[in-house]
Design brief:
This protein has about 260 residues and is α/β, with parallel strands linked by helices. The chain contains six helices and nine strands; from the N terminus they run E-H-E-H-E-H-E-H-E-E-E-E-H-H-E. The strands form two sheets. A seven-stranded mixed beta sheet has the order 3-2-1-4-8-5-9, with helices on both faces. Strands 6-7 form a two-stranded antiparallel sheet. The protein starts with 8 loop residues before the first strand and ends in a 16-residue tail after the last strand.
Amino acid sequence: MRIPRIVMKNIAVILAGGRGSRMGTDLPKQFIRLQDGRTVLETCVDVFHQNEHIDEIAIVMLREYFTEAQALLPADRFPKIRYWIPGGAERWESSLNAIKTIADANDSMTKSSINCKSSIVQSSIIDCVNVLIHDCARPFVSQDLLNRVCEALEQHEAVTVAVPVTDTLYEVRTVADDELVQTIPPRSLFRRAQTPQAFRLSVMQKAFHIAMHDEARTFTDDVGVALRYLPDTPIHIIPGEESNKKLTFKEDINL
């Protein structure tokens, strides 16, 4: 008997909640204009909006900037934007808010609405939803990279993007406030993390549920949440691109 293909829904979560303090400007970095006149936010969202694999977009930012952002991203130009979600004080809180909001919205849908049920496969609705969590500060992500991430999600529950380390790395130790070289690890073992970091929605819902019961929780990104609290879930690496750089300082955008 032929097994019906499960149709997945891909939701891009754009994290734009920072204030851009390291950029040293009055506005958060997502509202800074690039050389073509568009803001970082517009540039980033447009890449995801154009991608044929992306079904919906969620914008996560501080509520105080909603009005300004919505003026830049009107519904008639960006109909894929379905969610405006308040950001948290830390990155993980913004991701958690997005996971909760998207899970609640999709739990209310019927399985048949995205063809997620067959006589062979019995799944909850959130098992058929992927979230691609991306830093708005990386507005130059390419269509090819998004395509490769979405294709990988057809086979894997957790996917991240990374590039090889090209610089020599020092592991250091501190003696009397002086840093000393301890070891020089082989750089072939290391990768520099990029985004998007993509998962089944059910995977991140479960990982955050466990994390919220850990008073000692510490993590810097969503891969860290999945790795720590769901260590048996493999996280597959997709080769990233040097052009997918993060805008952190003024020099990064030629201000």
